[in-house]
Design brief:
145 residues, 434 Repressor (Amino-terminal Domain), elongated
Length: 145
């Protein structure tokens, strides 16, 4: 005698696939009232003039292609979304490469070294360092520097 196979979990089959980071950026613009057509009209790379089409933007959101957009395409998408190129580049890396950018861009080596040292500290130690930094800033302001 054989037992009946359990019925498949209907809830699991209906759960949506998580949306990729670049897809989400585009979807957020759509949710705020943009259209694919208006985005595509603005999607022009300021450096090369390369454009991104309405169908490509739709594909990125609904059924992302296997390959990520090129650098000129990312610049065009950034222009269309009025987002910094870096934000679109990070979203692209997260969606296609599962890469999470963690660098401290915009800061010099000294700041990155200091932050690197603080990264492994306990909450109490971080609070202590913050208080010391803030006290030093107050003293400098009060001294008129």
């Amino acid at each position: 005698m054989t037992a009946a196979a359990p019925a498949p979990d209907q809830g699991a089959a209906e759960q949506p696939t998580p949306i990729g980071a670049l897809s989400q950026l585009i979807q957020e613009a759509l949710d705020k009232g943009e259209s694919y057509g208006r985005l595509a009209a603005r999607a022009v790379d300021p450096e090369t003039g390369e454009t991104v089409s309405k169908p490509y933007l739709q594909r990125v959101v609904k059924n992302p292609p296997a390959n990520p957009p090129t650098v000129p395409m990312m610049r065009a998408i950034a222009t269309a979304l009025s987002k910094p190129f870096r934000r679109v580049q990070e979203a692209t890396a997260r969606q296609w490469l599962q890469y999470e950018a963690t660098e401290l861009s915009g800061y010099d080596a000294e700041v990155r070294i200091i932050v690197g040292h603080l990264a492994g500290k306990s909450k109490a130690e971080l609070m202590q360092w913050r208080m010391m930094i803030e006290a030093a800033e107050r003293a400098r302001r009060e001294a008129g520097e």
